[in-house]
Structures are given as C-alpha cells and as structure tokens.
Amino acid sequence: MYKVIFFLISVTLLCLSCNNEGYKETDRYMEIDNQDLKRELAFYVDSLDSIHKGEDHVIRVYCRDISNILKRYTISDEIDYDSWNRCPYNFKSKVHGKDILFVMWTANPRQSLAMSPVFKLDDKSFGKEVKKYFPKIYKKYGLKDSRYPQIIYEPDLIYLTFLRNKLIGKYRSRGLPGEHVPVNINKKIIYM
Questions:
Q1: Helix, strand or coil, per DSSP, at residue 64
Q2: 143 pLDDT band (50/70/90 cuts)?
C-alpha cells in the first residue's frame, strides 16, 4: 500500500515539475527555392547592412497572389515594430545570415483600419520577437504603443512581379505593399 502511494506521489510530483519554461523553441526557417527572389533579397540585404551600420532593422517581404500565375513580392525595410500587431509575419527565411520575415497578404486582409488580422502573435511571443529584432528600442521603450520621438522612415519598397515563377518586373518606389505598380507584359505596361 505504501509503495503504491509513494509511486503515485512520485509520478504526480514529476508531472508537476515538468513545464516548458526551460524549453527553448528553435527558430524555424523556410528555404527560398526561387533563385531570382533569393538573388534580389541578397542584394537588398547587402545594401541595407551598409546603410544601417548595426542599427536595428528588419526586412519584411509581403507576398500577394495577383492571379494563380502572377505573384508579387514587395520587399520592405522596417526600423520599428509598429505594424506587427496589425500585420504580423507568417514565416521567416534567412539570406546572407539575415532573417527575412514573410507576410502572406491573404492572411492579413487589412483594407482598412477597422479590420482585424486573421493571425497575430500572442503577447509573450510578440515581446520575444520585438526583443530579438529590435533590442535597442526594446531596451529603451519596452513594448509601449507610443514612443517618442517617433521616427518617420519611408524607404523605397522593391516590388517584384513573377509570372510562372520567373521575375518579369522590378519596380522601386515609396508607397504601400499593396499598391499597383507598372509591369511590362508582352511589351505592354500594365498596372497591377
């Protein structure tokens, strides 16, 4: 009888002592299989590293299906996490040692500020991601919604258009990831 009680108490204590606090989830990265996209991202990573010189910044790629054969990848350089609650990234990859955060446009249908995102990071994960990618801002401000002085940073976006996985258009402009930009298809300029 004492052996059974001792066994049950031991198993209960063992189960209670197990938690995931010490568990560290490793980063998982998707591999970019399209060489044109990988080459454009590598060029962008190298260019930005020389501009930012050690300052916090991330590269996000907004992925959008224009049709079942036309795809748009909009590359953005971001120095703050302001948009992450409204438009979180869905997966990440790595190019030249730099994390690239991918946002699936269909998973974040934000046509207006009244809409909520389909997916979002829980508060604990959000804090970890901000701390990882923006350590200087996190150290100074934490996760405050408003930080002063606010910086207006509007770098050019790179709009890459692919037809059947072949790069057919590259356009550089300030704007938003979902904007229509000119693409040359069969010697005709089309805005998409």
A1: strand
A2: confident
